[in-house]
TrEMBL record:
Organism phylogeny: Bacteria, Bacillati, Actinomycetota, Actinomycetes, Streptosporangiales
Organism from which the protein derives: Streptosporangium fragile
Residues in FAD-binding PCMH-type domain copies: 1-180
UniProt keyword Oxidoreductase, yes or no: yes
PANTHER family xrefs: XANTHINE DEHYDROGENASE SUBUNIT C-RELATED
Classification via SUPFAM superfamilies: CO dehydrogenase flavoprotein C-terminal domain-like (SSF55447), FAD-binding/transporter-associated domain-like (SSF56176)
Keywords recorded for this protein, A-Z: FAD, Flavoprotein, Oxidoreductase
Protein's recorded name: Xanthine dehydrogenase family protein subunit M
Domain of life, source organism: Bacteria
InterPro entries documented for this protein: CO_DH_flav_C, CO_DH_flav_C_dom_sf, Diverse_Substr_Oxidored, FAD-bd_PCMH, FAD-bd_PCMH-like_sf, FAD-bd_PCMH_sub1, FAD-bd_PCMH_sub2, Mopterin_DH_FAD-bd
Length: 293
């Protein structure tokens, strides 16, 4: 299908982009921001989105790149998934981001799709929003009125709805560096290598003396937004991580039996809610064990 007609604007500076978006917001125009286009272009072709204009941010190099800023890593919104995966800073300082980003779609999409675009699309079936929630990332946005920061817990408002106001541009994401003693894993169940996750689990685990001291768990595709599995995080505190003897009870699996608490998984052609709940429990236990090493 051919997209509906729209105006095309390609600003040369971030200030110009903010001005164009601000003017469109003031006029009540429906304007979409184009980054890598891997999510937006299919919607345009299917006429599920028909904006009056597209604002292409492709000529804004200041929105691209990875910076080590000590207590956090800053990832520019236009940094491609492939650039994130290949970044030595990301792999060393924030390995959970690298692990999850490597599972996004396929190499072709990862070379065009952007880190910020995936976040701003706010698809609960996407791999990165759950990671941002688990790590406590902060989103930096800019408009003609200045800059503000949005915690991940407040950024994903509803299905495909981020907390971006009309006229705002996502500049980048601050990813906290958790430091020594943490282990990470992203567990994903999907039909084919390039498909969306039926369920995914982002896990960060800190252990002391062979027991869990702290855990952070984010769930993919278990509701209209990514979900923080707080019941599991609480249940895992102090749990022994020793190998389980054959026929014995696994305390990690018992703690992760609460992974689906507070979730509202969707029903679609790929899975029903009860199956997704089962997957959430099983995959969370696997992810915690893998993160703990």
């Amino acid at each position: 299908m051919i997209p509906a007609s729209f105006d095309y604007v390609r600003p040369g500076t971030l200030e110009e982009a903010c001005r164009v978006l601000g003017e469109a917001a003031a006029a009540g125009d429906d304007v979409k921001v184009l980054a890598g286009g891997q999510s937006l272009l299919p919607l345009l072709r299917l006429r599920l989105a028909y904006p009056s204009a597209l604002v292409d941010l492709g000529r804004l190099p200041e929105l691209r790149g990875v910076e080590d800023r000590g207590d956090h890593v800053f990832i520019g919104a236009l940094t491609t998934h492939d650039e994130v995966v290949r970044s030595g800073v990301v792999r060393e300082k924030t390995p959970l981001v690298a692990l999850a980003t490597a599972t996004v779609a396929d190499p072709a999409v990862r070379h065009r799709g952007t880190f910020g675009g995936s976040m701003a699309h706010a698809d609960p079936a996407g791999d990165l929003p759950a990671v941002a929630l688990a790590l406590g990332c902060v989103f930096v946005v800019r408009s003609g009125e200045g800059e503000r920061e949005i915690p991940a817990a407040e950024f994903f408002v509803d299905y495909l709805e981020p907390a971006l106001e009309p006229g705002e541009v996502l500049v980048g994401v601050r990813v906290p560096v958790l430091g020594a003693g943490w282990g990470f894993h992203y567990e994903k169940f999907h039909r084919t290598a390039q498909s969306w996750a039926i369920v995914g689990v982002a896990a960060a685990v800190r252990q002391t003396g062979g027991a869990v001291e702290e855990a952070r768990i984010g769930l993919t595709n278990m509701g209209p937004t990514p979900v923080r599995a707080e019941a599991v995080e609480t249940a895992l505190r102090g749990v022994d991580l020793s190998p389980v003897a054959a026929g014995g009870t696994d305390p990690v699996r018992e703690a992760c039996a609460e992974a689906d608490d507070g979730t509202s998984p969707p029903a679609d052609l790929h899975a029903q809610p009860d199956y997704r709940r089962h997957l959430a429990r099983v995959l969370t236990a696997r992810a915690v064990r893998a993160a703990a090493g």
